[in-house]
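Progress note, sequence design subtask.
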């Protein structure tokens, strides 16, 4: 019997990892990527330079024996280092968990991308083709149409259009990110395909804090730095070479925004007012601000994620989320594990495998989308407040006092594999109980006070 053949579109983070998983299962895999080979110096443009990887993502790498290789240069971040507003304000460290060993890890996107692609290429049944852009997919035929980008070498050229190459498979998997061409074909051809995209009013821009002398870090290395400023914020993640990548999340429009901050003086004034401790560490601030693109932040929800046993969506193509929980890639990696489990469970019925994968992931992807937007408000607005830090301390006290029973939401999302939707439900229940407990305690105190006064 001929081997099942998968055509994968997109060799980003999830595409590379999924190709490795499918390769290990013995499938024939052709992976097509519109960009050039990242090992030839092509920077993964338009996305963050580094990302935070946590338990879910690490688990997915461990399952295929890649965690050690991928994490060797990652930098553990044990908590948030908050930079309050105002010149001379002291930074405040807020650990992520009561257990200091629980941390998230800053990892380079390009290095991780190369690791997963190389892992896939170790299987002789996996072939990776760079410089091939998918234009659309014939869903019933499981055929992806690919346009060769300059420099691509390919023999099979379609007679109808000399630049378009058909890639025939038993199934096509769209791992082609938030603006997926595979998903667009599904939108066009599946009746009642549900699709929703929403953009934040904020965009993001990356800037650099270069290394200190001898490759040292010019701020605390093992922390995710945050400058919360109510309606906007800047964050910084450490890199192995001693630098930090800063990301400013700011309104596109408005009296103080990307749109109105045009001249060098405007940029300097804004940074001097808002991030005075960071400015001396950012010698290329103006160049970075001018040259680096301003990215948009989109949430995409769609359904279904599959068409018969022929087409399926994985990662951002199925569920792009805003980056404030640091979970988009982690969730995309978790998709790969779940899809692999479903293919194992239904080896002879791909449609059932895809359907089960969709039903296990959809509710969780929707829950993550909501959590990610909620965490933006928490990071930019609440982390600077005393009430927020007090709540975190209560969370950690309860977690220590009730191990395995009380788990803060951040802990469940970041340091466990509890499905996102269940974590959100459990956190709501816990919050209700804690709030009820506090009200009861206040009630008892007031009652005791009233009894004491009355008895005098
Ligand atoms: C600023 C920012 C910070 C982030 N930080 C974090 C973080 O800290 N932690 C975290 O877990 N997640 C983070 N994310 C989210 C994370 O980047 C994504 O969830 C992750 O990249 C999704 O992986 P993917 O493989 O599905 O998509 P992508 O990484 O986008 O890969 C898609 C691939 O498909 C290719 N492609 C696209 N269209 C075509 C086509 N038509 N034909 C062929 N190839 C195509 C692209 O070139 C790309 O290589 C962040 C995102 C942003 C924007």
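Output:
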């Amino acid at each position: 019997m001929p081997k099942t053949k998968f055509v994968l579109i997109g060799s980003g983070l999830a595409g590379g990892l999924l190709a490795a998983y499918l390769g290990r299962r013995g499938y024939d895999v052709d992976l097509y990527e519109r960009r050039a080979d990242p090992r030839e110096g092509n920077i993964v443009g338009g996305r963050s330079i580094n990302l935070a990887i946590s338990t879910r993502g690490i688990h997915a790498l461990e399952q295929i024996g890649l965690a050690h290789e991928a994490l060797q240069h990652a930098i553990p971040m044990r908590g948030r280092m908050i930079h309050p507003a105002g010149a001379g304000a002291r930074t405040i460290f807020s650990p992520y968990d009561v257990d200091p060993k629980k941390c998230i890890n800053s990892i380079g996107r390009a290095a991780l991308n190369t690791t997963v692609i190389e892992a896939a290429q170790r299987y002789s049944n996996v072939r990776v083709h760079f410089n091939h852009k998918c234009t659309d997919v014939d869903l019933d035929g499981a055929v992806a149409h690919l346009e060769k980008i300059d420099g691509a070498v390919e023999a099979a050229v379609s007679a109808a259009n000399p630049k378009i190459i058909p890639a025939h498979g038993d199934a096509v998997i769209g791992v082609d990110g938030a603006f997926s061409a595979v998903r667009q074909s599904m939108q066009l051809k599946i009746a009642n395909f549900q699709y929703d995209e929403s953009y934040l009013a904020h965009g993001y821009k990356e800037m650099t804090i270069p290394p200190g002398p001898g490759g040292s870090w010019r701020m605390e290395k093992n922390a995710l730095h945050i400058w919360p400023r109510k309606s906007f914020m800047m964050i910084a993640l450490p890199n192995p070479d001693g630098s930090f990548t800063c990301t400013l999340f700011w309104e596109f429009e408005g009296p103080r925004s990307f749109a109105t901050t045009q001249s060098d003086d405007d940029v300097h004034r804004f940074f001097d007012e808002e991030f005075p401790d960071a400015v001396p560490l950012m010698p290329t601030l103006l160049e970075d601000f001018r040259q680096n693109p301003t990215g948009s932040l989109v949430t995409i929800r769609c359904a279904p994620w599959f068409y018969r046993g022929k087409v399926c969506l994985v990662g951002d193509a199925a569920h792009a989320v805003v980056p404030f929980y640091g979970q988009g890639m982690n969730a995309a990696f978790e998709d790969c594990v779940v899809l692999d489990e479903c293919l194992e469970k239904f080896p002879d019925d791909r449609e059932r495998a895809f359907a089960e994968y969709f039903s296990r992931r959809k509710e969780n992807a929707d829950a993550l989308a909501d959590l990610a937007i909620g965490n933006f408000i928490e990071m930019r607005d609440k982390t600077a407040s005393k009430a927020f830090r007090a709540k975190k301390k209560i969370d950690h006290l309860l977690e220590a006092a009730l191990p395995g029973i009380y788990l803060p939401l951040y802990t469940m999302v970041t340091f466990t594999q509890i499905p996102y939707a269940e974590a959100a439900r459990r956190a709501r229940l816990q919050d209700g109980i804690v709030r009820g407990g506090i009200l009861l305690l206040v009630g008892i105190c007031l009652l005791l006070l009233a009894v004491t006064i009355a008895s005098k």
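The pocket of flavin-adenine dinucleotide is lined by residues 9-15, 32-35, 47-48, 51-52, 133-134, 175-177, 181, 204, 247, 295, 315-317, 323, 326-330, 332 (CB under 6 Å). Work on this subtask will continue into the next period as scheduled.
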